[in-house]
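Our preliminary data section would be incomplete without showing what the modeling component actually yields. Below, a chain of 262 amino acids is followed by its predicted structure, encoded as tokens that our downstream tools consume directly.
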Amino acid sequence: MNDKIVQTAGREQLGDFAPMFAHLNDDVLFGEVWNGSAIDIKTKCMITVVSLMASGITDSSLTYHLQNAKKNGITKEEIAAIITHATMYVGWPKGWAVFRLAKEVWNEEAPALSEKDKFQNTVFFPIGEANPYGEFFVGQSYLAPVSTEQIPVYNVTFEPGCRNNWHIHHADSAGGQMLICVGGRGFYREWGKDAIELTPGKVVNIPAEVKHWHGAAADSWFSHLAVEIPGENGSNEWLEPVSDEDYNSVSQSINQSNFDHR
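Predicted structure:
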């Protein structure tokens, strides 16, 4: 998850001399535009580097944005491809100039991102640490609290193929759970019903006393917010694991359905 971008360089360097410019730089450019949600930070870094390169700017401002690009996940291979591609349109001398700066920024190989880190870069909510309820899951899962007051909300993340056991949310009245899918692709199945595919934006309402399971597709990480619905005398009962045979059957059925609807 990317932290909110805060910039103070404008006020520090030009606050007394050009307060309006400082405000536009710190509060509008970085405070609003860079924190906008329409495109991700990594894409904004690419656009900025290419824009400065096209303008022939190869001073410390470009170095800053190259460093920012590296910090936000652009690899040495990617920046080399970006600069090479842009050179075909903006000119060979500019390409050479930018490569000199890029080599200094990417002068050390950063450790390769783990698959968990790569997936974290695609979702807004933190993945968290290994799930303390892992004994009730097939495969590796992670748990991160989002809210522990009023209504408990947790982000649950599943590695590919991971799923929780069949389970039931008990309550004398009300209760149950809501799932809000926030990343990757997964499945949800109620006892006696066909499974459904879960993708970002999908919401699943699970009444109390319904036996069910949920987890990731075999080829994808998956995250959902788990919202615990208040109920009278609520409890959770963990049941048998979802067998490989049952899981594979669900996976094949949904993948076939997706193929048929192309």
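Residues 7 and 30 are 6 Å apart (CA to CA). Residues 244-260 form the longest helix (17 residues). Preliminary results of this kind motivate Aim 1 of the renewal.
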